[in-house]
Specification:
The protein is α/β, with parallel strands linked by helices. It is about 45% helix and about 15% strand. It has nine helices and eight strands.
Length: about 220
């Protein structure tokens, strides 16, 4: 596979969104996974809805609103201090265990993040994970003020790196994101960490792996 650059989604692909679970458990024992799952699902829904309604709010605000909804839906009372503590976890999400070594193996190519996160969120997340030197570019949808899977977001990626989309590989664990990138014309690698079927959206990824280490071996 002739790949000059690799784009990575951030949330759920490089970084485990459910690493907020431990802090959720501290404040709400035995409810952590429920909070984390509801939070993530509503976070994604809000990005899609805001894109369709042309009512953009940045990813920090979307994530904050999604948390507020999740807590209300689960009947959990949380003050400002607790919500702030949970939100801070999104700046310290854990990379998946194989990420560091896999990225080191792939660094003969240009590596970039293309994400729904705000620039500030992404920069802090990458810095806190000690991955700053790994990526040539960390690209946020904030520049366009619309979320993936809008085609213009993927276009933004190749414009930033000055490459053709045929020279790039897009890597994500989110099926909706993989479908969007494939529709745009990227070659797509889907990380199927949890052995789930791919969404029925009329397109399919070019490569399916279980973790990033497998991608390093394939390339």
């Amino acid at each position: 596979m002739n790949v000059k650059a690799i784009f990575f989604d951030a949330y759920g692909t490089l970084f485990d969104v459910h690493s907020v679970l431990e802090t959720c458990e501290q404040y709400f024992p035995d409810r952590g996974m429920q909070i984390s799952e509801a939070w993530r699902q509503k976070q994604l829904e809000y990005t899609w809805l805001r894109s369709m309604m042309d009512k953009y709010e940045d990813f920090w605000k979307v994530t904050e609103d999604a948390l507020a909804y999740a807590l209300k839906a689960l009947g959990l009372d949380a003050g400002k201090e607790v919500r702030s503590a949970l939100m801070r976890e999104y700046l310290h999400l854990n990379p998946y265990p194989e990420v560091q070594k896999a990225l080191e193996k792939l660094n003969s190519r240009k590596l970039a993040i293309l994400s729904n996160g705000t620039q500030a969120m992404l920069d802090l997340l990458v810095e806190n994970a000690r991955l700053t030197q790994v990526f040539s570019d960390v690209i946020s949808v904030d520049e366009l003020k619309i979320y993936k899977p809008y085609m213009g977001v993927y276009e933004l990626g190749i414009d930033k790196l000055f490459i053709d989309k045929n020279e790039a590989l897009f890597v994500t664990s989110n099926p909706w994101d993989a479908a969007g990138a494939k529709t745009f014309g990227f070659r797509v690698c889907w990380i199927n960490r949890f052995n789930k079927p791919f969404d029925e959206l009329g397109v399919h990824p070019d490569v399916v792996i279980r973790n990033l280490e497998e991608l390093a071996d394939k390339l």
